[in-house]
Write a structure and sequence with these properties.
50% of the residues lie in helices and 10% in strands. By secondary structure, the protein is of the alpha+beta class. The chain folds into 2 domains: 85 residues; 72 residues, CRO Repressor. The protein is elongated, with a radius of gyration of 22 Å.
């Protein structure tokens, strides 16, 4: 039964650590802002995974609570600094962030963009189905976002009036 529970397991320490980490993350997020756990860029995702790894280390007693809180606080501070630098300096934003890429322009599938982004047509069609597209005529645009998500901008029906606002594609690379 040792695989299930050992009398030497630090259960109380784990409960106390969990409470302290929870309070610390809530406090740090309130100070630094909600963008701390946003998924705008690849580095945002990497930071979130790193924080998860640190949490795991703390809760399994691989590292101390103080050490873990310091590491999490440092990572959150870095995300705050980088987000400020991105807004202030276009060069840094261009280095850190990928620009969204157009995969479909209306009903036209942009094969070259799909190939460069390593997106298969079956994956694209799957996203169209998820967006309830029943006809390529409904599609205004399909965008591979900087986060890796695929956005489908479409009409509700084929007969719907064309009132698509091109400003929704601001900053999207049209062709590679």
């Amino acid at each position: 039964m040792e695989w299930l529970y050992k009398s030497t397991d630090p259960i109380l320490i784990t409960v106390i650590s969990t409470f302290l980490i929870f309070i610390s993350i809530v406090t740090l997020t309130r100070i630094i802002g909600l963008r701390s756990f946003a998924k705008f860029t690849a580095y945002d995702f990497a930071f979130t995974v790193a924080i998860g790894s640190i949490l795991s280390s703390i809760l399994t007693s691989s590292t101390t609570v103080t050490h873990g809180i310091t590491a999490i606080g440092s990572l959150l501070l870095l995300t705050f600094i980088f987000s400020k630098l991105q807004r202030k300096f276009t060069v840094i934003n261009n280095l850190i962030s990928n620009k969204p890429l157009l995969l479909m322009d209306g009903k036209e599938i942009l094969e070259e963009n799909m190939q460069k982004a390593r997106i298969e047509k079956t994956q694209l069609v799957s996203k169209l189905r998820e967006a309830n597209v029943i006809n390529y005529e409904q599609v205004y645009a399909v965008v591979l976002e900087s986060t890796g998500d695929i956005s489908v901008l479409h009409k509700s029906s084929v007969d719907e009036e064309n009132n698509f606002d091109d400003n929704l594609l601001e900053g999207v690379r049209r062709r590679l």
